[in-house]
Amino acid sequence: MAKIKPNNFLDTVDSVFNDAKRQGILHLYAEGDQFTGRHIKVGQKDMFHFGTTGYLGLEQDSRLKKAAVDAINRYGTQFPLSKTYISHPLYKTLEEKVTEMYSNPVIITKNSTLGHIGVIPSAVDDQDAIILDHQVHWSVQSAAKLLKSRSIPIDMIRHNNLEMLEDRIRKLSSKRKKIWYMADGVYSMFGDVSPVMELMGLCNKYPQLHLYFDDVHGMSWIGKNGTGYVLDNLKELPEQVLLFGTLSKTFGASGSLLTCSNRKMYAKIKNFGGPLTFSAQLEPASVAAAIASADIHLTPEIYSLQTDLMERVKYFNTLLSESGLPLVEQNNSPVFYIGTGMPVTGYNFVNRMMKEGYFVNLGLFPAVPVKNTGVRITISRHNQKEEIKGLVEAMQYHYPRALEATYTNDAKVRSAFKLPINETEKTNNKPKIKLNIQFAKSISKIPKNDWDTLLGGNGIFDWEGLHFLESVFSKNKKKEENWKFHYYIVRDLMDKPILATFFTYSLWKDDMLASESVSKKVEEIRQQDPYYLTSYVLGMGSLFTEGSHLYLDTSHPLWHEALHSLLDQLEKLDSKLNSKMVVFRDFIKDEKLHEFFHNLGFIQVSMPDSSRISNFIWKDSPSYISNLSKRSRSHFRKDIEPYEARFKIEIKNTIEPREYDLFFKLLENVRQNNLGLNTFPFPKKIFKYMSDHQNWEFIILKLRSGYSKDAREPVVGVMFCYKNIARAYIPSFIGMDYEYAKVHQVYRQLLYQTIKRAGELGYREILFGMTAAFEKRKLGAVTISQISYIQSKDNYNLELVGILENSG
């Protein structure tokens, strides 16, 4: 089978960001000929600035500005030499002052991202292992992934889950010299913090555990000498802790720093740390500004600044507690996050706030799960109490209106963030145009003609096919073999159908669409833990079916309302079933639907290409071959026609029980050799149900005795084919004996025999389904690119698969 191209994470992010740019949320430009920190001008509008990371406002301090200007006049705009050879004169002063702040030696880096890239590969030995917090900053994750070439294991735990962390430590402790847990001190989106002292307790329990903290968002506004949240908890820096701070953001200058009390490790990192050696050093202006800031940090003034900021933070917290707004995390950090749930609600809310004169940021995928979109607000010393109060009042006014304008409510938002729900808000929905929604848990509850008229021609999900699937995937021993079916038809008040579809609730492998190499790693773990990286998914269609599972009359004026009605029903069902993901499958890209799904918290992913032959007319083999392209005719005469005589070809409507095990083995051969589309095996009883069903038939290839190894006539291939209500022929699954498959071109022969059989039956369409599109195209099939839309409750499993994708 042909290799399946894995999904490109960057394509998904690009799609999300492009939507946000179109909404006027991202990639904006500040305007004006000066900047004070209190105000910001965007789109010719002056706004109060609630999006800064300069929490103490030191970037506007006259002492830092003067130092920077003086340094440029004295030393120029840059000092173009590697620090490995020589640093410009101000560097030594800066290092001495920051060392005094931390009471430990420091390494100054150009910025945090380059700092992590320089430090992590130097600090982590080949005998070590890395465990990432799910929400640790991207720059840390990216640097850690560089170690894949050294085969250093990288794992990930759910955010701040110490029980999970301890489990990983125990599993690694006998195999690895050091175990590095990497986390943020203060997390940049929600403003929550690491359980620093609990982590130190684990270090005491497990001496192999070392901690790597990125505390750039905890810097300056808290701690002795403004050395940050982590050190404020630790008081002194233990040898098993590496700590990253920043000279930008709240510090007011530029650059970042690493501090370390282990002198041997410090020397190793400083001697050679990739970008620490080869990247340009900080500009004289940045170093001078950092010196001026360090002087402030080394005096009691820093505590006055911290107190001044904390008064504003507490005031904002008080107002928010009285506002009823869904604050995701309440603490004393200057970072706040108001949940909006869906991206479209976030877009609406941010635009309303900007029009009102308040600049805030939107938190969106991949920094947060798509359905955890929200408004990120930061408080700084620039903000005055009257504008803080004005911000809260504006949010109180516009938040419910943003919800109403985007078909959602406060209860849905709180549910997305697992916040307490106000009972009175549960029914606070926007009034919708009345539609009739038919729901059933079995296809037997829906009139056969109604269903087949809407969806019967699209695949193995006409009424009879779904009845078959319900029988196969019920009353089985294994949980992955039991599916729950949910059918929906939405009609207008005149009983005209607008929408019809079905969803199944079933167990999926999270690496289903990952690369083959990732699935191989995961399957090794599943030898001991069969349900590792698996999730229950509420998915359109099923893992057995392929094709257009959604009937949607987009010419109907209420099609938007029909989709919203479906999503409302799915949200209730999803809440009851507690699935990890909702999936809308197998679409040909449509800009209207793309915008609709993305705005409602779904991200686009690529599916394997599908193939089909339409308007098919068969007379005989020569006439069929003559209509192929020149290259395809050559392929047929070389790789298919000469091999046909090697097989006895049988077409059977029923099979004997003695054949079940053989067919299951052949089917499993293909599944296990096609890990680019990694799924669970089907129940063995499927062959009995196929055999008993009038719409199924089997194309069986037996190798003639002259070509087999023992003069027998073994079954070397079988195609499982379904004939739907619209007379489409559907080769659904294939089984092969790989001992013979390549030598005798079994797969290609099965494809040809399928086409031949469909033609002899007089069928006008062959739905080949997903995978191996290249082989099918050579036989006249048309390739169709398909996409799906997924909505995940969190990014953990998706990102863990990404970690495996990038690990050695």
Automatic annotation (TrEMBL):
<dbReference type="InterPro" id="IPR050087">
    <property type="entry name" value="AON_synthase_class-II"/>
</dbReference>
<dbReference type="InterPro" id="IPR004839">
    <property type="entry name" value="Aminotransferase_I/II_large"/>
</dbReference>
<keyword id="KW-0808">Transferase</keyword>
<dbReference type="Pfam" id="PF00155">
    <property type="entry name" value="Aminotran_1_2"/>
</dbReference>
<dbReference type="InterPro" id="IPR015422">
    <property type="entry name" value="PyrdxlP-dep_Trfase_small"/>
</dbReference>
<dbReference type="GO" id="GO:0030170">
    <property type="term" value="F:pyridoxal phosphate binding"/>
</dbReference>
<feature type="domain" description="Aminotransferase class I/classII large">
    <location>
        <begin position="46"/>
        <end position="393"/>
    </location>
</feature>
<protein>
    <submittedName>
        <fullName>7-keto-8-aminopelargonate synthetase</fullName>
    </submittedName>
</protein>
<dbReference type="InterPro" id="IPR015421">
    <property type="entry name" value="PyrdxlP-dep_Trfase_major"/>
</dbReference>
<dbReference type="InterPro" id="IPR016181">
    <property type="entry name" value="Acyl_CoA_acyltransferase"/>
</dbReference>
<dbReference type="GO" id="GO:0016740">
    <property type="term" value="F:transferase activity"/>
</dbReference>
<dbReference type="InterPro" id="IPR015424">
    <property type="entry name" value="PyrdxlP-dep_Trfase"/>
</dbReference>
